[in-house]
């Protein structure tokens, strides 16, 4: 991980540290944060936030500035895997909004 990804991981960790069931793992070239075994978000190179959502929610979120479909290992993922640019998560309120969006999507999955 580069310095921006490490800094973002520290921010995510600080926001989620009291969350029961939280786990942190190195996966897919990211530092992934899982809740009850489900990936919520991950931190990527250059401070990009990887966010996992439902396909429907992801399609709607792709209209937001700084959001695009994630590419992992040369493969373009579907709308349920989004990369959020550092400019869209500049403060902790914005970052927490994306984390909450991922949490809501995870809660809606069986």
Q: What is the total tally of β strands?
A: 8
Helix content: 25-40%
The CATH topology name reads Aspartate Aminotransferase, domain 1
CATH architecture: Alpha-Beta Complex
How many whole angstroms does the radius of gyration measure? 13 Å
Structure in a nutshell:
The protein is of the alpha+beta class.
Describe the structure.
The chain is α+β, with helices and mostly antiparallel strands. The chain has a single domain (3-108), classed as Aspartate Aminotransferase, domain 1 (Alpha-Beta Complex), CATH 3.90.1150. It has 3 helices and 8 strands; from the N terminus they run αββββαββββα. The protein has helices at residues 3-16, 55-61, 92-108; strands at residues 22-27, 30-35, 38-44, 48-52, 67-69, 71-72, 75-76, 81-84. The strands form 2 sheets. It has a 6-stranded antiparallel sheet with strand order 1-2-3-4-8-5. Strand 3 and strand 4 form a beta hairpin. The chain is globular, with a radius of gyration of 13 Å. The chain starts with a helix and ends with a helix. The model has no long low-confidence stretch (mean pLDDT 92).
Write the layout of secondary structure elements.
Blueprint: H1 3-16, E1 22-27, E2 30-35, E3 38-44, E4 48-52, H2 55-61, E5 67-69, E6 71-72, E7 75-76, E8 81-84, H3 92-108
Antiparallel strand pairs: 1-2, 2-3, 3-4, 4-8, 5-8, 6-7
